[in-house]
Structure formats: C-alpha cells, structure tokens
Amino acid sequence: MSTIESSLLKQAQKLPETPGVYFFRGPKREILYIGKATSLRDRVKSYLSKNLFVTRGPLLVKMLEDARSITFIETDSVIEALILEAHLIKKHQPEYNTRDKDNKSWSYVIITNEEYPRVLIERGRTLPEKYSEEDIKYQFGPFSSALNVRYALKIIRKLFPFRDTCVPFTELTLRGQEHARPCFNAQIGLCPGVCIQTVTKKEYTRTINHIKLFFEGKKSSLVKALEREMRLYARTQEFEKAERVKKTLFALRHINDIALISRDDDIGEKYAGERPGMRIEAFDISHFSGSEVIGVMTVIEDGRAKKSDYRRFKVRTSRAGDTHALKEVLERRVRHDEWPTADIVVTDGGVAQLRVAESVFVELYGVRPQPSIVSVVKNEQHKPKSVIGKNEDLINQYTAEILFANAEAHRFAVAFQKMRRTKNFIHKKRKN
Fold first, then answer.
1. H-helix segments, 50-174
2. Torsion angles phi and psi, residue 279, rounded to 5
3. Closest CA to 211 of 111, 73, 61, 341
4. What residues have CB less than 8 Å from 190, skipping those under 6 apart?
5. Closest by CA position to 298, among listed 377, 378, 414
6. Using the 8-state DSSP alphabet, how is residue 370 labeled?
7. Can you tell me the distance from the alpha carbon of 109 to that of 99, in angstroms, rounded to the nearest whole number?
8. Which H or E element spans position 38?
9. How far apart are CA 71 and CA 209, in angstroms?
10. Using one digit for the tens of pLDDT, what is the confidence trace for 99-133?
C-alpha cells in the first residue's frame, strides 16, 4: 500500500459510523467525488479494500490515485444524505461524478407551476419533451438512483401529503362536476384533498414550501417553520391542526428511512453485484418482561423483502436468556429441509449470538454447504453500530441488505409480540 493510500485509510478509519456525505479531495483540496453513505466509515473504507481492482472500475481507481484527503458532512438520516448528495453534486459538478454518468439517465424531482402544484419524478431525458421551463416551479437533483429517490419521496409524502395525479376541485367545478370524489391517495392520507377541497390553497402552498426546504437540505429551517406553525395554531386554538404539526415534527426528527438503506452507487462499475437468488435470513428474539418469549425469521431475496417466507416461533425453552431462545429458533429453522437454503444468516446482538448461530449450523448442517453467519451489533440507542462475522468481504458487499433484513426482523418481532399481548389481554378479559 502506497503512502497516499495509507493516509486515506487512516482518515477513513476516523470517520463516524453515521449517515452522511463524503468528499474525496485532490492535491489542491478540490472536490473529485461526492458520495452518500449509511455509515461514513464503512463506506469510505470499502473504497480502500485490497480487492479494489477486482470489484471496482478503472475510473474509480484513477480517482483514488488523484485523491489526497477525505472530508464529510454528517446527516441525521440516509434520506437526508441522499438529498444532500444530489444538491452538492449539482452545485460543485465534481469531475469523477460527472465523467461516468449521462445526465439524461439521472432522475429529478420537479414541482409543477400550477395553482395546486404536483410533485413528480422525471428522467432527465424526458424533462424537455414533457415540460417547458414555465411548467416547472422547482427542480431538484440529479439523483443517480431512481429507486432511491422513489423511496425518498414515498417517505416525504407521509410527512407532507401532496398532489401528483388527481384533478383539483377548482378545475372539476369549471367542468361542471360539483360532487367530486376523493382520489385514492386522499383516501389513504397521501393527498391532502385538493380534489375535494379539504385543504385551502394557502395551506397547500405551505406544504409545497416544506417539501422545497427538505429537498434543498434545509432541515433546520423546515423544523423552525413547523414549530412556528404549531405555536400559531395553538394561539388560535386550532388544536387538531397543532397536533398534526406536532406529529409531523416528531416524524421528521425520527425518519424511518430503512427503505433507503440500499447499496450505494459507485462510480464506474459497481460491486460484483448481488447474484440472482441471493437469500438472506435474519432472526430476532423478543420478550415481554422476561416472559412471552418469541422469535421471528425474515427473508430478503434479491434485495427485496420476501414476506411470504417470514416465520414466527413461540419459544418453548425454559432456560433464561436470548441466546438460548435464539438457539432453539435456529435449530427449528434448520430442521425445515423443505425451506430454501440461506446464503447469509443474520443474528441480532454480538459475539455471543454469532457463536450460537455458528454452532447450530456446524452441528446440524453436516456436510451441506453452510451459510455465512453474521451478527448486527447495536449501540446504546439500539441502532446498528457494526456487522461482525468471518467473511469481511461478504459483509462489505452486502451490508445494506444485512441491515435491511435485521431491521425487518426487529419490526416483525415487535409486531408479533404486540399481537400476542393483545390476544392474551382479550382472553383474560373474557375469562373474567
């Protein structure tokens, strides 16, 4: 390893394990490349792995040869890293971000210039064909991943419901349709009801401004604006509206962006990629005050949740501790020969859980090819801190999918536990 590579690796090792945007800089501190990350440290370290020339393209290798330093900006969530990355790429136009991409293949979020603006995703190549400059009020991007920006907009829409396809009530009235029906999105809370006039133009304009602030990476300004709204509604005794804003503020500060934990785009060529049929199984144990112990298995196949293969287990062991419960669940899973074989098995915890899983598969799998066993270590806030296991290359390649599977297992376990507690409560009430 050269002196420069060694220096970059030392810098990477000091980065935080948080979402954010990173910058590779040249000899004159110029920005060569901008990227986003779920974990800044893990992401940047992956550029400096020993198998770089095998898994990455020549353009990336050239960028690393030119790089002299690494800087970063932390964000509170992956979705904010995604949006900030697009904003900064547009602002700085780094050489290695633009050389390997055709702008026409990138995606953009646009807000139309209408009485009740629509929020849409469009490809760069279709924008000039479908819209004139006067048709677009705001434009954000470019975003290199259309899938990621769709996920991001899905999350944002839950915070700030907007119009995309429905016809506003004012237009329907002009057509002589005075008895409008709510569009499907209005029925499920994703459209504020511009089609049935349940939102005023002033309120909807405010929503569009909120979305604009978010896509400009101005989260702090957005939070302050919402806090002002909440206080205003409270002063005018519009308590229901004040409560809605309060819930939006809470959701904004706790964005559940696990959907965006997908493998980050590389410049040039990507990793070798997920092979077809790649199956990841994640296990989690949950209990209520030491009793009602349950276990779950979730499945990620080809990078997507395969919910038809999710399984629940009522733990039978009387021995205390999550590791004993995990051992039982894994043993019961392994005995199901009719279920597809996993390529990666994910446990939640640390070394103890990892060792238990390894022992179960060694004991019960015999001569069959064994899956790679990994464990997701959490911090004090119960957020992923690191992924441990013997196959570091596999972990680096599939970190995103492993974290996704782990998060799904936790969510599924909590839902199962709540369902059981509700059933028990109803049963006891009926007996009494």
1. 52-55, 58-66, 78-92, 95-98, 127-130, 146-159, 169-174
2. -120, 125
3. 111
4. 157, 158, 161, 162
5. 414
6. P
7. 22
8. none
9. 31
10. 545 555 678 899 999 999 999 998 888 888 888 88
Distance CA 196, CA 199 (A): 8
For helices 201-215 and 219-235, angle between their N-to-C axes, nearest 10 degrees: 150
Strand 291-301 to 372-378 pairing: unpaired
How many other C-beta atoms can be found within 10 angstroms of the C-beta atom of residue 255?
19
Contact of 57 with 268, CB cutoff 8 Å = yes
In the prediction, which pLDDT does 269 show?
35
pLDDT higher than threshold 90 for residue 251: no
Q: What are the phi and psi torsion angles at 73 (to 5°)? A: -130, 125
- Locate tokens 């020993």: which residue? 50
Q: List C-alpha distances in Å: 50 to 9, 54, 70, 277, 389.
A: 11, 9, 19, 27, 18
> CB of 388 within 8 A of CB of 375?
yes
Per-residue pLDDT tens digits for 193-215: 888 888 889 999 999 999 999 88
Collect all residues with Cβ–Cβ distance below 8 Å to 312 and sequence separation of at least 6.
294, 295, 296, 412, 416
**DSSP characters for 163-230?**
BSSSPPHHHHHHTT--S----HHHHTTSS--TTTT-S-HHHHHHHHHHHHHHHTT-HHHHHHHHHHHH
Assigned token pair, 76: 């509170």
CA 190 to chain centre: 19
In angstroms, the CA 407 to CA 282 distance is 9
- Residue of 173, 202, 172, 198 lying closest to 185 (CA atoms): 198
Q: What is the pTM of this model?
A: 0.57
Amino acid at 154: K
Alpha carbons within 13 A on the beta-carbon side of 362: 7
pLDDT per position as a tens digit, 143-178: 877 777 887 888 888 889 999 988 888 766 655 555
Here the tokens at position 285 are: 């144990």
Strands 279-288 and 344-349 turn out to be parallel
| Cβ atoms of residues 187 and 156 within 8 Å | no
Adjacent-strand bridge partners of 107: 123, 143
